[in-house]
Design a protein that fits this description.
Elements lengths: L6 H17 L12 H6 L6 E4 L4 H12 L11 E7 L5 H17 L3 E7 L8 E7 L13 H8 L10 H19 L4 E4 L7 H8 L6 E4 L1 H4 L4 H12 L18 H13 L1 H17 L11 H6 L5 H13 L2 E12 L5 E13 L1 H14 L3 E4 L10 E6 L5 H6 L4 E10 L5 E2 L3 H14 L1
Parallel strand pairs: 1-2, 1-5, 2-3, 5-6
Antiparallel strand pairs: 3-4, 7-8, 7-11, 8-12, 9-10, 10-11
Helix pairs in contact: 3-4, 3-9, 10-11, 11-13
Bound molecules: iron/sulfur cluster (SF4).
Iron/sulfur cluster binds next to helix 6.
């Protein structure tokens, strides 16, 4: 038996985690970092800040402001564009922005700031990776990317809620830099909501303060996505792409989005591999955590022509990545609205080859007299073995009605990408669930 308190074992687990992330291309050189004080001193506080997300909408705003002086009531030296990088933008989008937008900004000497997160918590801070009126390169892969966060937690971005991954990853980085460079002076904050996104603009306006005033140029110009695209085509003679992380579940939430994403994966098989690997690790630990609601990306790609190279890369990855044996405990605490608060504790018990971890799983299951299930009947491509120490109460509604916490506990194997971690709400919730379990 191995334990996480043994430093030699911890080092072994860390080696496996590092190796797995290296195989996924998540180990990289540190990005450049400009001290925030230097960024503050780089110029007078800007009066207009454009959150530049690299996609069609905000690119159209920037292109129009720079090429058509009649649509703006400020000087370009008062404008700053800021991009917060999540780390895994589509290469085609990066290419378009590099070839068209950066030269345009440089030609008009418009200040462009690029920022990334430095770590998982706000206390880790941000890295300003570039700040220039002559931008010639994108530096949007930071020390801590959204993929690092997802693999570390063994999960995928959630589609419930208001794009929490975006708020967590981009909003914090943008807010930090905007607060620093505006130096307590009032500023206009331009955001690329299109003419059809009035409700998002209304919601954003709630964040106005004495200093910040949100403005939505595409809404003012009555410009929808198609007109924004047309403007970019007329300006650059090329069609622009939507900006998104390569594994964004929102892009996979519609039939059209799925078709477009599969086509992009075929053109960029390594992006497809990262998305598949992320989904695979997450679904080993929780079968419902796929990238497509009630389906799997893996199933979609297996059914799509032209994906052979990507699927071959994925098979190769599963054969070469170090695996881990995980202990997974999850609690479900009923809320007054009839839904559940979830908490989880994840612990790596051992690392090694897939075969060795499978053997370990069987041995431990036998010793604990625990049944091993293979796969989850709801998902045809789920073939993960799980040794069940505790299953959720089948009369779930009775527990829910009584507002009692339920729990599950199993051992499973997965690529060694997720770290051992206990959620802050878990110990109390597990205690509650276990007390009831004993009482029953
Ligand atoms: S593109 Fe998708 S995955 Fe990336 S931050 Fe935005 S919502 Fe999240």
């Amino acid at each position: 038996m191995t334990g996480v308190l043994d430093p030699a074992v911890d080092a072994e687990h860390q080696w496996a985690l590092d190796q797995a992330r290296w195989l996924l291309g998540l180990h990289r050189r540190q990005p450049p970092s400009i001290p925030l004080e230097q960024v503050i001193r780089a110029g007078p506080p800007p009066r207009v800040v454009l959150s530049y997300g690299l996609g069609v909408d905000s690119s159209a705003i920037a292109a129009r402001l720079l090429t058509d002086p009649s649509v703006r009531d400020f000087a370009l030296e008062d404008l700053v564009l800021i991009t917060a990088g999540t780390g895994q933008e589509w290469p085609a989008t990066l290419d378009l922005v590099s070839r068209h937008m950066l030269p345009l900004l440089a030609r008009h000497r418009v200040r462009y700031v690029q920022v990334t997160r430095r770590g998982p918590t706000e206390a880790d801070g941000v890295d300003v990776t570039a700040d220039s009126r002559q931008p010639d390169q994108l530096h949007l892969v930071g020390r801590w990317t959204l993929a690092d966060e997802m693999f570390d937690a063994g999960t995928v971005p959630r589609t419930c809620g208001d794009r929490l991954c975006s708020q967590h990853f981009k909003a914090f980085a943008l807010d930090t830099v905007i607060a620093a460079i505006t130096q307590g002076q009032p500023y206009r904050h331009l955001i690329g909501y299109s003419a059809t996104e009035l409700s998002r603009a209304k919601r954003d306006a709630r964040y106005n303060t004495d200093l910040r005033t949100g403005e939505y140029p595409l809404i003012t110009w009555n410009m929808g996505r198609a007109q924004a695209q047309l403007l970019l085509e007329q300006t650059f003679h090329e069609k622009f792409c939507k900006s998104a992380c390569t594994y964004c579940p929102f892009a996979l939430s519609t039939e059209d989005g799925r078709a477009a994403t599969v086509a992009q994966f075929i053109a960029e098989p390594h992006a497809g591999l990262l998305a598949l690997a992320m989904e695979f690790s997450a679904t080993c630990l929780n079968p419902t955590q796929g990238l497509i609601n009630s389906r799997r990306l893996l199933t979609l790609l297996k059914q799509s022509p032209g994906t052979e190279q990507m699927l071959a890369l994925f098979t190769e990855y599963l054969a070469s990545v170090p695996w881990a044996l995980y202990d997974v405990r999850r609690t479900f605490s009923p809320r007054v609205d009839g839904r559940f608060n979830h908490a989880r504790a994840l612990r790596i018990l051992d690392t090694g080859s897939r075969v060795a971890m499978h053997t370990q799983l069987r041995t431990r299951a036998q010793a604990a007299h625990a049944a091993i299930s293979v796969g989850d009947p709801r998902f045809p491509d789920d073939q993960h073995p799980r040794a069940w120490m505790r299953r959720r109460d089948p009369v779930d509604h009775a527990r829910t009605a009584a507002a009692v916490t339920d729990a599950e506990h199993f051992l499973t194997i997965a690529p060694a990408t997720a770290s051992s971690k206990t959620g802050p709400a878990f110990p109390g919730a597990w205690r509650n669930a276990s007390q009831l379990h004993l009482a029953i």
